């Protein structure tokens, strides 16, 4: 997990806007991360039910940058479980209806050479 805490409100907002909008929910207040976990705008950098952090898709430790294209909003528990893993990692929170639930999921960035 990247320990970097962003203070720049413009960067925080740009990353927030990458989270998924859900019908019937105010996108200024509540969205979902890519794993489907609910995150709350005001809970940035809080270890709460809807807390979230800014994650580096390609971790800094592996040559990633702070470029906005490499940053995504991620529920804090998903960010913790992802850690510096890349190109495969796990998340542990998603949602069911209006509630976050624990569910371990595997994610993988394909290099185009994968064979299934």
TrEMBL record:
Gene Ontology terms, MF aspect: endonuclease activity; nucleic acid binding; zinc ion binding
Keywords, in A-Z order: Endonuclease, Hydrolase, Nuclease
Limits of the HNH nuclease domain: 26-80
SMART domains per the UniProt record, alphabetical: HNHc (SM00507)
Highest taxon above the source species: Bacteria
Coiled-coil regions listed: none
InterPro entries in the record: HNH, HNH_nuc
Protein name: HNH endonuclease
The organism's taxonomic lineage, starting at the top: Bacteria, Pseudomonadati, Bacteroidota, Bacteroidia, Bacteroidales
């Amino acid at each position: 997990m990247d320990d970097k805490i962003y203070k720049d409100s413009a960067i925080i907002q740009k990353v927030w806007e990458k989270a998924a909008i859900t019908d019937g929910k105010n996108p200024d207040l509540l969205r979902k991360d890519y794993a489907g976990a609910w995150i709350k705008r005001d809970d940035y950098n809080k270890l709460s039910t809807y807390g979230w952090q800014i994650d580096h898709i390609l971790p800094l430790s592996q040559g990633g940058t702070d470029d906005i294209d490499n940053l995504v909003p991620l529920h804090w528990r998903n960010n913790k479980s992802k850690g510096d893993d890349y190109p495969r990692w796990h998340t542990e929170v998603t949602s069911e209806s209006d509630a976050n639930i624990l569910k371990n999921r595997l994610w993988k960035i394909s290099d185009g050479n994968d064979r299934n």
